[in-house]
Design brief:
MetI-like fold; 2 domains; 14 helices; globular
C-alpha cells in the first residue's frame, strides 16, 4: 500500500509543474501591462520602466520562469502587485471559503443524487424514473450562473427568505461560537448565506451523479448474485442497499471525486454571482488587474487541491478494490 501511495504522489509532481508553466505563459499572453494597470494611464514611460524592473517584468520570459520556479519550490509565491500582500496570505484567507462552498455543494449533490439515482434504477421505466431523469437532464442543461440568478430572483428578491450575496462567519468559527457561547445566531446566518450558492453549484453535480448511480445500479441489479439474493428471500431493501449499491460504488466514487474537484475550479462563476469571497473570485479579480503573482499562485493552489483530491480518490479505490494496489 505504501508503494502504491508513493507512486501516486510522484505522479502529482509533473502535473503541477506542467500546470505552473502553462499558466505562467498564458497569463502573459493576455493583453495588458501590469505596470500600466498599477500606475494608471497618466504614468510616464520612465515610471513604467522602473515599475517593470521592480516587478521583474523587464527580463525575458525564460528568466522570469526560472526565477519563479526557484521561488515556488521554497513556497515563496511572491507578493501581489495590487494588494501588496504575500500571495500565500491572500490565498490562505480566501481558499477556505471556496472549500466550504465546495463541500456544501457536494453534500447537496449527494443528498439529492443518491435517492434519485437509486429510486430511478429500482423503478426503471416508471414515472419516478422519468421524473428523476428529467431532473438530471435539466440540471446538466442549465448553466450554473443561470441557476444562481434564478435562485436569487426567487428566494432573495421575491420571497426575501435568504440573502442574495456575501458570506457570513466561517462555518468552523460559527460552530465554535455555538459551543463556546451557546448562541446559534452566527451559525444560522452562515448557513442562510451558504444555502443559495451551495444549491446553485450542487444542482449540476446532483444531475451527473444521479445518472451515474442509475447506470451502475441497473448493471448490478441485473447480476447473478443479486438474483440469487432475491431467490433466497432476502428483503428488497437489503438487496438494493447491501448487495447492489455497495458494489456499484466504484464508478460513483470516480464521478463524485471528479465533481468535487471541478467544484473547486467551477466555483469561480458562482462566487462571482453571489459575491462569495473565495479563491475563484480572487483569481478573476487578479486577472482583470493583471496581477500575475496572484493569478499564478491561485491557479497552482487549485491545481494542487485537484491533484490531491484525485490522489484521495485513487486511495479510496484501493480500499474498495484491493486488486488496484498492484
Amino acid at each position: 500500500m505504501a508503494k502504491y501511495i508513493f507512486k501516486r504522489i510522484l505522479q502529482i509532481i509533473p502535473v503541477v509543474l506542467g500546470i505552473t508553466i502553462i499558466v505562467f505563459f498564458l497569463i502573459r499572453l493576455i493583453p495588458g501591462d501590469p505596470a500600466l494597470a498599477l500606475l494608471g494611464t497618466d504614468a510616464t514611460p520612465e515610471e513604467l520602466a522602473r515599475t517593470r524592473a521592480r516587478l521583474g517584468l523587464d527580463k525575458s520570459y525564460l528568466v522570469q520562469l526560472a526565477l519563479y520556479l526557484r521561488d515556488i519550490f521554497t513556497l515563496n509565491f511572491g507578493e501581489s502587485i495590487v494588494q501588496h500582500k504575500p500571495v500565500m496570505e491572500i490565498i490562505g484567507s480566501s481558499f477556505p471559503a471556496t472549500l466550504e462552498l465546495a463541500v456544501a455543494a457536494i453534500i447537496v449533490s449527494l443528498v439529492v443524487a443518491v435517492p434519485l439515482g437509486v429510486l430511478s434504477a429500482v423503478k426503471q421505466n416508471s414515472w419516478a424514473d422519468y421524473v428523476s431523469m428529467f431532473f438530471a437532464q435539466l440540471g446538466t442543461s442549465m448553466p450554473v450562473f443561470w441557476i444562481g440568478l434564478l435562485l436569487i430572483l426567487a428566494f432573495s428578491l421575491k420571497l426575501q427568505w435568504l440573502p442574495s450575496f456575501g458570506r457570513g462567519e466561517p462555518l468552523a468559527e460559527a460552530v465554535g461560537a455555538l459551543f463556546a457561547t451557546g448562541s446559534a445566531a452566527p451559525l444560522l446566518d452562515s448557513l442562510r448565506r451558504l444555502l443559495l450558492p451551495a444549491v446553485s453549484l450542487g444542482v449540476m453535480g446532483a444531475a451527473l451523479i444521479s445518472r451515474m448511480i442509475r447506470s451502475t445500479m441497473l448493471e448490478v441489479l441485473d447480476s447473478d448474485y443479486v438474483r440469487t439474493a432475491r431467490a433466497k428471500g432476502t428483503r428488497e431493501g437489503k438487496v438494493v442497499l447491501k448487495h447492489a449499491f455497495r458494489n456499484a460504488l466504484l464508478p460513483v466514487v470516480t464521478t463524485v471525486g471528479l465533481q468535487f474537484g471541478s467544484l473547486l475550479g467551477g466555483a469561480i462563476v458562482t462566487e462571482t454571482v453571489f459575491a462569495w469571497p473565495g479563491i475563484g473570485r480572487v483569481i478573476v479579480t487578479a486577472i482583470f488587474q493583471r496581477d500575475f503573482p496572484l493569478v499564478q499562485g491561485g491557479v497552482i493552489c487549485v491545481a494542487v487541491a485537484f491533484a490531491t483530491l484525485n490522489l484521495l480518490v485513487d486511495l479510496l479505490y484501493a480500499v474498495i478494490n484491493p486488486k488496484l494496489r498492484a
